[in-house]
């Protein structure tokens, strides 16, 4: 439908000042070609049913909402953040430069700051639920990363070069996919370097991947729901596919040769990318959404733990439309409710829908108390989580072509509702379970981003294994076998199967070393993922396992009805004649030989109160 058709249909003409959105209506903006004589971005705004609207959606970072610049909407000054003003000006200048022979030089866009009345809470609640319709309906999504930097041109050229080379090489049917392609790529692309020009290119690449846009929560929904995505960085453009391809290349390098990306190659020069700073949750998004279980709200929250939102409620609402389990109901935007109430609603909805406690893995011990939360309520409102967060324990085995199945079953199949549970009036969570062991000793935290390697971990952790050649009490095999399986949490990297062990040679200089290195390449990614920011722990009964970094000697090991994994709890109030002991939730734990219901044998379950 053309602009003139909309104007003829709409007796009210402009939709600004805002009129109430009725039924299927949305607003969209027509951006005029930039007029230097006016000096401000000019646009008109229209209101029409969604199915009649034709527009390009804009995805951008708000920036500081209190630092604004004026534009003209329907001839009236309208303040937007400076980053959005810069984006609109760039687009308006492009429109002004278009050849008149190409037709109408105006551009229809949908952008939240203008098309949604931000002062109307009822409208915001309703329009947030419609994002799952608004973005798929757009003919294109423009991602605005901000103005270009001094090396953006070199960076875009490098990203496009790598994409083109990989496309050419992996299409070679006689080769071995990426592994063959990598051998034929120019080494200067991925080897460590001290060359000044090459370092400049790499700084430019990282500048693109470190822009504020990547950190926003809302962008996952915007990118995930859109058909075609074009990325703008000032003057330059890239396809979304090229950014995905470049990051996948870095991922393959990490799996095949971690020393090229981590500082375990002696620190000789600058690595190709800083893998710690790559926005993996965004770059993996489209692949993840192909598997519906990967787009559950639980998984999406986990993948966006480091993302930011101006409104803390948007840590949930910003991804709700992507979720396969709650986008159609169960959780509804309520911006008028306090943040803690919104987060509590999410936990309650998840407990009731899945009859399980899986979502408690989002609790980051030590961060919850910062805003007065109980230990069992995740603090999704963390303003800037600077720390690299440890991986949660895998919940599912994901063999290709098969329905995902649970990786562990520590509670022996007991659902949450099979035993009494409730929320207390004093912000407590009352569950059924048992504390059956105590942490007796722990190692230092494995931090591969700051000097730790496989070799240094073995040097620090292997001597703690009490009797390597003797039988491990809680599972088949020796203590050494238990150690090898513990440091990959008993699963492959993806994960796809259980009973998987990290291999390492008894004699690194033996003739078997070459064979060992081949096997090591398969296990190393699982090892890094499992052990990153974990401690090796031993219990008073002799169990070996991996625990979160906050775990201390004396913490209790608990099995809870409705939880497929074990948990570490910290007693804060001892039991007395007047009530039960109370515990803080420290986090999930893996203890070898106790993850498939064995902990339940002979246990007398009772009430466990979390505060």
UniProtKB/TrEMBL annotation:
Residues 55-222 form the Heterokaryon incompatibility domain. It holds the Pfam family HET. InterPro entries: HET, HetReg/Transcr_Mod. It comes from the Eukaryota. PANTHER family: ANKYRIN REPEAT DOMAIN-CONTAINING PROTEIN 39 HOMOLOG-RELATED, HET DOMAIN PROTEIN (AFU_ORTHOLOGUE AFUA_8G01020). This is Heterokaryon incompatibility domain-containing protein. The lineage of its organism: Eukaryota, Fungi, Dikarya, Ascomycota, Pezizomycotina.
